[in-house]
Amino acid sequence: MLMRERAARRTAVALSLVVCACTAGRIGCKVYDPALLADGAIDAGPSIDSGPCDPNHPAGRPEPSTEGPDIGEIFFALRAINIHQPGDEWKRVGYDLDNLCTQPPDYVSQCEPPRAGATTEIDGLNGTDNSVGHNLIPLLLVADSELELDADRNQTQGTGTPLIRILHWNGQAQDPQVEVVFAQAVFGATALEDGGQPDAEIPRDGGLTYGDGGNAPQPSWNGSDWWWARDDSFFDGDPARPRIHDDRAYVVDHTLVFSIPDREDIVFAGESRGLAVRLTDAVITGRISNDKSRLDDVTVAGRWAINDILSTAENAGICRGSGSYELLEGLLMGMADVVSNPTAGGPGAVCDAISVGVGFTGYEAHFAAVHFSFGFPNACERMRMDGGLDGGVVDTD
């Protein structure tokens, strides 16, 4: 429980930007610095030529003639999230969401920033939309320099790990229709010596254990681990009724392509703090290795509405009415570059979402079962019930 709680605390620190919310090139930091609200995009390094406007989209669905017999289920656990996207790397992470290449001198965009004076966000290579990687992540890493290391450590131990099940795949480079289930893990554990499923659980009082009471080792990430999914990733905790599910996914040139239902919660939570990511127009892709042991170059792209980010702020410990909440809201208004509804936009439209591009690497694994997930906490509500808040931000020491 300690590591899960520490990771959730770091999420709260990073999201609120209250440890040291300053951008590159500025001197000095404050918990609440009004100067941060005066500028638009964050300087994340020198600009490069983004090339011709050949929209960066996932490859299309292969022909029905490429269908073939199923090989059975394969399963991946994702780790090695690329939080840090330095220099120009952010320009290559994600996809073109708005079918526009927003570049100088015209800066053609589907909407205008909601904050007066904010600059229009430029696109990455071939129209790639990734304001999170360009603007938000640099601030998070300044706020907490150990964020990426802590996120990787947390995933290494199996807490909140994204899980992908692929069903009805023909095992070939092309398959016009497969089924994908996406969930989050409560924990993972090393397989038994014979590769079988261990009898492991997290009792409600904490601590990953085997059925005989001994401590269960953390995942080995060698393709043999077993994973238990959060019960709230499924309706009524029923593994046959996943909340994030695409039965019209496909494989093209060994790359899996699937979509996520709009605004379905992707939950990362500890005992007292958490974060719910709700995306619209979201797609996930990943290249299946020839031996089916890895899912490489996993890309998650989508639109994250400002209202949805702010609605989960209290879960992470950034409380309404505080200077930190106001700072977060102002920064998001300057980073917004897309509309949350992909069918909206146009002259006079106001951006209400930020574009997301992040990456992972997937490792072969096994699905064990659904496990209770300790609910979804609201840190601010808990602190109010306990007698108050310190400056509107939950203590993260």
Shape designation: globular
List low-confidence stretches. 1-51
Assign the structural class, choosing from mainly alpha, mainly beta, alpha/beta, alpha+beta, or little secondary structure. alpha+beta
Largest sheet: 8 strands, antiparallel, barrel
Summarize the amount of helix as a percent range.
Answer: 10-25%
Mean pLDDT: 81
Compute the number of helices: 7
Distance between the termini: 16 Å
Number of domains: 1
N-to-C series of helices and strands:
HEHHEEEEEEEEEEEHHHEEH
Number of strands: 14
Strand order of the largest sheet: 1-2-3-7-8-11-12-13
Amount of beta strand: 15-25%
Rg, rounded, reads: 21 Å
Task: Please describe what this structure looks like.
- It is globular and about 60 Å long.
- Helix 1 packs across helix 2 (131-143) and helix 1 runs antiparallel to helix 3 (147-156).
- The chain has an 8-stranded antiparallel β-barrel with strand order 1-2-3-7-8-11-12-13.
- The longest helix is centred in the first third of the chain and has 15 residues, at 2-16.
- It is α+β, with helices and mostly antiparallel strands and 397 residues long.
- Mean pLDDT is 81; it is low at 1-51.
- The chain is 17% helix and 25% strand.
- The chain has one domain (2-44, 71-386).
- Strand 7 (244-252) and strand 8 form a beta hairpin.
- It is built from 7 helices and 14 strands.
